[in-house]
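Progress note, sequence design subtask.
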């Protein structure tokens, strides 16, 4: 635990390296602070997720999407840590995080563990920012645990994923396709699976490094977790609960005239699907595919700052 802690915190590592020339009082103070932070991080244990905490200030929870690593949020977390305490979530089963639940449920147990984390770690109505499936999770948390959250930003995520296939699609109608998608994940051999993930990555991000990372994260993920998650994502419809929501929500979505969703199409889809949510703030980010934080990091940073300032 301590080795991982020090590797993740270069400034503290440098401070500890110089302890030999520090006063005893300073040494004791640094040691106590280090012990307190390590203890705080070790206090929460879950087989559904892990959380890395950096910075200090108001709490911000960053949730990655399907098969993604928390590293997808690393640049934004590093930027925010000067003014906020950032909680970088890693979902079990994805990007090398262990998965112990076979083909069991994914989304609801994970959301319940996130709620438990907020309660047990004493977070005071944190801002939750989630990408893709992480954005859906943020909306789900706001519906089920409105007393725990301060605000939610959904980044390129719909309240019903399968609505992108048509306004007439229902969760029940999507079920056979969800089962087919899950079966395909489980059945592909390693070479075919890598090729599939590479093709998918091209449509998801303009940034080449992110495409490579996406493939690596998928290959390191547990396929059973991926299958369970995609089946649930495709058949979870949060739209019926939108009207009763009281948590402020920003829906940030991508548009890309060169290989992504054209602006008019993106506007129509996101406006239609969030129409039932009172007071939702819609923000389109142009020149980006699904991974907005990689394709338009400066623009997303501006939006995040505005979101957190309100």
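Output:
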């Amino acid at each position: 635990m301590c080795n991982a802690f020090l590797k993740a915190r270069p400034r503290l590592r440098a401070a500890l390296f110089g302890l030999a020339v520090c006063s005893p009082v300073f040494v004791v103070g640094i040691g106590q602070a280090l012990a307190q932070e390590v203890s705080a991080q070790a206090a929460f244990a879950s087989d559904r997720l892990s959380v890395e905490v950096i910075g200090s200030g108001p709490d911000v929870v960053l949730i990655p999407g399907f098969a993604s690593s928390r590293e997808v949020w690393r640049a934004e977390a590093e930027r925010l840590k000067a003014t906020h305490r950032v909680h970088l979530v890693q979902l079990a089963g994805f990007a090398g995080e262990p998965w112990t639940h076979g083909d069991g449920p994914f989304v609801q147990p994970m959301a319940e563990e996130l709620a438990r984390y907020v309660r047990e770690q004493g977070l005071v109505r944190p801002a939750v920012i989630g990408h893709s499936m992480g954005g859906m999770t943020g909306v789900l948390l706001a519906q089920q645990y409105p007393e725990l959250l301060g605000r939610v930003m959904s980044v390129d995520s719909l309240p019903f994923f399968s609505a992108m296939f048509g306004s007439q699609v229902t969760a029940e109608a999507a079920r056979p396709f969800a089962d087919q998608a899950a079966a395909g994940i489980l059945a592909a051999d390693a070479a075919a699976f890598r090729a599939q993930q590479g093709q998918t990555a091209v449509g998801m991000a303009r940034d080449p490094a992110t495409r490579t990372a996406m493939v690596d994260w998928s290959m390191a993920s547990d396929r059973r977790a991926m299958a369970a998650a995609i089946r649930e994502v495709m058949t979870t419809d949060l739209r019926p609960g939108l009207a009763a929501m009281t948590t402020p929500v920003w829906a940030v979505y991508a548009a890309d005239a060169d290989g992504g969703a054209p602006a008019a199409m993106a506007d129509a889809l996101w406006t239609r699907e969030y129409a039932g949510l009172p007071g939702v703030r819609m923000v389109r980010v142009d020149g980006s595919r699904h991974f907005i934080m990689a394709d338009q990091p400066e623009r997303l940073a501006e939006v995040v700052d505005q979101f957190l300032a309100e």
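The chain has two domains: 1-43, 45-309. Work on this subtask will continue into the next period as scheduled.
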